[in-house]
């Protein structure tokens, strides 16, 4: 499909039909996605293709830890997992939160789940000494993830980038035999969408792009 059409219609897909995602199609998706940029072209991304239902279910269960906090904070009027706004909830309130089934269903029901890893040995984290959460290393993995979602859209499939399992990264790494030098960046279920969106809603350019300064005039072409 045309590139701009794909960019404007690649939404988050969490409900899938029973249609399979054949290996040859998945290989074609990954084969095209691999041309995403990485820092220094070091190509430190690894992908684990997860089809085993027990493994996917175990990862879905591990994601419930973060999902409980997300659900509890949302119900409490907070911004879930925000690094600048700590939660006011105690551990017992978070543990008691009931996670909606649809938050873990995609990992159990999608025909395939992809785990994206980043080799920290080869990244340049230029923000590592700043007094904030590091975001720069993501530049070497998330373009790859987005390329996978765009390629999946082109093939008539869809998915969603999730990170809930990262809260239990040590357990997830033990489960899949992942070396210490790798970080889990995302878990992405892929399959045939139950509903395919044709148009997404986003803020106009003038609301997020400014000229010359953060407080500059809105950019208008």
UniProtKB/TrEMBL annotation:
Superkingdom of source: Bacteria
Residue intervals of the Nitroreductase domain: 12-192
SUPFAM superfamilies found in the cross-reference section: FMN-dependent nitroreductase-like
Alphabetized UniProt keyword annotations: Oxidoreductase
Any Pfam family: Nitroreductase
InterPro entries (UniProt xref): Nitroreductase, Nitroreductase-like
Coiled-coil portions: none
PANTHER family associated with the record: NAD(P)H NITROREDUCTASE YDGI-RELATED, NADH DEHYDROGENASE_NAD(P)H NITROREDUCTASE XCC3605-RELATED
Family: Belongs to the nitroreductase family.
Name under which the protein is recorded: Nitroreductase family protein
Organism from which the protein derives: Mycobacterium lentiflavum
Lineage, highest ranks first: Bacteria, Bacillati, Actinomycetota, Actinomycetes, Mycobacteriales
């Amino acid at each position: 499909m045309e590139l701009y059409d794909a960019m404007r219609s690649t939404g988050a897909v969490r409900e899938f039909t029973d249609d399979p995602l054949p290996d040859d199609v998945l290989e074609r998706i990954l084969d095209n996605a691999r041309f995403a940029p990485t820092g220094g072209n070091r190509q430190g991304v690894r992908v684990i293709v997860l089809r085993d239902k027990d493994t996917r279910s175990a990862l879905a269960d591990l994601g419930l830890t973060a999902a409980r906090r997300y659900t509890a904070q949302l119900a409490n009027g907070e911004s879930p997992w925000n690094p600048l706004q700590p939660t006011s909830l105690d551990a017992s309130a978070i543990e008691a939160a009931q996670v909606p089934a649809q938050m873990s269903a995609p990992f159990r029901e999608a025909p395939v789940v992809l785990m994206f890893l980043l080799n920290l040995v080869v990244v340049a984290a230029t923000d590592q000494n700043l007094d904030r959460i590091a975001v720069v290393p993501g530049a070497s993995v998330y373009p790859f993830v987005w390329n996978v979602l765009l390629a999946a859209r082109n093939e008539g499939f869809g998915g969603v980038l999730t990170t809930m399992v990262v809260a239990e990264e040590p357990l997830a790494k033990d489960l899949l035999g992942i070396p210490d030098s790798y970080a889990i960046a995302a878990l992405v279920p892929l399959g045939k969408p139950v509903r395919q969106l044709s148009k997404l809603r986003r803020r106009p350019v003038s609301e997020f792009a400014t000229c010359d300064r953060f407080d500059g005039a809105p950019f208008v072409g």
